[in-house]
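Async update (no meeting this week)

Hi team, since we skipped the sync, here's where things stand on the single-chain job. The sequence we agreed to prioritize is pasted below, unchanged from the tracker. I ran it this morning and attached the output directly underneath so nobody has to dig for it. Comments welcome in thread, and please keep replies under the output.
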Amino acid sequence: MSDVDFIGAHLVPSPEQLLRLQRVAAGAEPADLALRGGTILALHGREMLRRDVLICGPHIAAVTPPGRLAATTEIDAAGCWVAPGFIDTHLHIEYTLLTPGELARLVVPRGTTTVLADPNCLANVLGPSGMDIAGRTGTPLRIFRQVSHKVPRSPELELGGGEVPEAEILKRLSDPLAVTLGESNPFDLEDSAARKSHRALAAGRRITGHTARIASEPLWTYAAAGIFDDHNAFEPDEVVERLRLGIGITVMSGSMNDNVRPLFADPPRVAGGFDQFTFCADDRHVGDLAGEGHIDHHVRTAIDCGVEPIEAYRMATLNAACSYRLDHLVGSVTPTRLADLMLLEDLEDVRPRLVLVGGEVAGRGGAATFGNDDVLPKSCRGTVRLHPGIGPESFRVEVPPAEVHDAGTRTTTEGSDAGGAVGGHSEAAGAQPAAVTGPPAGAGTANTSDLVAVVRAMEMYDGYFKRAFEAELAIEDGAVAADPATDIAKIAVVDRHHASHTLAMGFVRGFGLRAGAIGITTNCENQNLVVLGTSDVELAHAARSLEAIDGGYVVVAGGDVLASLPLPYGGCMSDRPWEEVYDGLGGVTAATRSLGCAVASPFMILSFVGLAGVPDYGLTEKGLIDTFAQTFLPVLVCCRCPAHAG
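Output:
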């Protein structure tokens, strides 16, 4: 690499700035600003020292005993702790539901001054331009980029939306804003993945991991690709196993699962790896960011669990900076680093009195001192495109009367969900799809609710993890029906990028939906439209309601839209201030409660049901997927009607 390629090259002091920092440190001229008499967290040596912090422009010039050096402006920090700004080491800004500028208004006053963000959501909608849009802001928040690993994630398993060529990803790994190669599918053993990993390692960038809590050979295989970290592990044994492989732990607190308290339930058990721990708020939406906090929540919770405050603050700052090769810029209260600092009156309560970014006040008393003037391009709007023919009939899971499953044989279809896809390509593991023709309309499709079919289904647990099981469901009018009484809903992933009639069906347990349907346009990763509900009519209504608001979240029942949250930027981010998005999210969540859904963050979890990188099953607009084999499976196992009983 050339010298301009190194991470954050544009943020280091210029030669002229370095000379001025030295003059200030020598007492030859005054600093621009001094934080006087606070107790700094000297994290390299795990010390707490009463010191002055002298700032010139955006950088720290000196950290000295009180009163030694002059400054033009002073802030009295007596009685306060002075800490570096927090760093979030893995985030998808789009899943906060906010634009980068609105996220900044929310989290900077809480002490977060730097985020490492993978823009794969907007990349899956708009391609490379989406990566740039989600990775920049004119507000004080510093965004370093985790270069999305593969867009679309699994081209052979999905239509996807936006595309990012491999050459573009390789090029971006040398950008000064790039800190890592983004998280990848742990089951991806393709040549392309190896080329990207090689480029990241050669460019001095880390490789973000997503182990999906795998173990033994699958984990060893993934680690051999150069994976640097993991944000899924939280049980002590799996944490220790990863540390032994040289994989750091990015302690995640998202809206689907909060790993902080379980991971630190027995601090001595994992204390040997504390230097390898950092914090992230992966998939944490505005409701939890505003209600519980961002990285401040991690620090508070870790301390409450018995972690020493100095260790918790190291994880949130210095560990993060060192781990991702940013420690020459941020992560400590030391000379030449950026003056991204906070003053706290209570080290354990973690509520900054004052936040500085680049030596300028950016937060005071929990509120931002800056506005958000970011303007997103028009290309972000109008991204939800549905086929005009999509309606209730599109969501039928047909049961062909003549279909018989012999032992060891899988039958798949083209254009019917018995094979996993509607209007799209579907294949069984190791076999080409075979055409199966369903009954003609009105023939053999009388109400047959006394008959049942066996389907492959998913049970949600631990946030976005899915446990495979088989369910017996009633056949009504020649198609498999949902069963709200046993908490089994129908789910569909629908192409909303190309306006094709490509969609696939599945069955899910764990949402508790008794009536109606809910829908999103934030499917991980390709941001397709997903609807979950109790009938085909409700599914179609939810899909069309999402189209009407240009993407977002909806709740429907009985022909009415009970609540909606428009997310018109790419179908995944709001165009409103974070305060309004917070209220809107509360409204749609309350509406799901009225339909029986009691799970936390139902829309976020719905976004991840289809993720093909998390066991046991995935679901794309092309079909049901065995995540370990990365191949299609038929949704329909068999029917157990009298005609097939023998």
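Quick observations from my side:
The longest strand covers residues 31-42.
The mean pLDDT is 91.
Reply here if anything looks off.
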